[in-house]
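Pasting as-is:
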Amino acid sequence: MPTILCVDDEPTQLTLLEFAFRRSKMTVLKANNGQEAVAQADAHHPDIILMDLMMPVMDGAAATAAIKQNPATADIPIVLFTAYETGEMADKALAAGAVKLIKKTTPPRDLVDLIQKMLP
């Protein structure tokens, strides 16, 4: 069963993501900010990470860079899941190694389908 790490500072969003991915038979790990995401990625090596950009403590761009700089986690695909399709932070995260940007307005079923197609 594939494992996804969902990273978002909004508890409701995390709950919705968890529900959607568990229904599709995925193991779901959660993190509330980028710092937690870096730790979870290092500890559990998920198959894919779904990362918000705007978060406290450590934003998604910084977390993406940290995960990609660690040889133990560098190969984990990171998908940005954000309301901000463009801008400096999105550019930084993509430059740091995120593979795709998906808008938060994407319906859950479509999001699950996109993620499943991206699994290694």
